[in-house]
Design goal:
By secondary structure, the protein is mostly beta strands. A hairpin with a 4-residue loop joins strand 8 and strand 9.
């Protein structure tokens, strides 16, 4: 099974890159607390993205993104490392700018695993 690569230009969308850390914690009666990462990939990374272009290209990108809400793909988001990401379900939005130009906003979430 080949992993596809995102090939279009992108830029960071509205909002900030989010880092969601999951930890395990145990609080004791004397105030002492133990904390540990919840697994080896305990930080989830979520990146808002934006693609602006001609309507035909935007439609091609949209089709790629909608096919990758479950299946991971390779991309290097601005400000992050190259890796496997999936599109967050229901995050793809198309805004028509003119009769032949559009803006596509979407959110990516880092995927972990062999083919994630």
């Amino acid at each position: 099974m080949a992993v596809e690569t995102y090939k279009w230009a992108v830029q960071l969308g509205a909002g900030a890159i989010e880092y969601d850390q999951t930890i395990r914690a145990a609080q004791f009666g004397d105030g002492y607390e133990q904390v540990a990462d919840n697994g080896i990939n305990s930080t989830a990374i979520q990146v808002p993205m934006l693609h602006v272009g001609r309507d035909t290209e935007v439609n091609e990108v949209r089709a790629f993104l909608l096919a990758h809400t479950v299946k991971a793909f390779i991309i290097t988001p601005p400000g992050e490392d190259k890796g496997l990401y999936r599109v967050v379900a229901n995050s793809v939005r198309k805004h028509q700018i003119s009769s032949n130009a559009a803006e596509l906003s979407f959110t990516l979430r880092r995927a972990y695993g062999v083919f994630a």
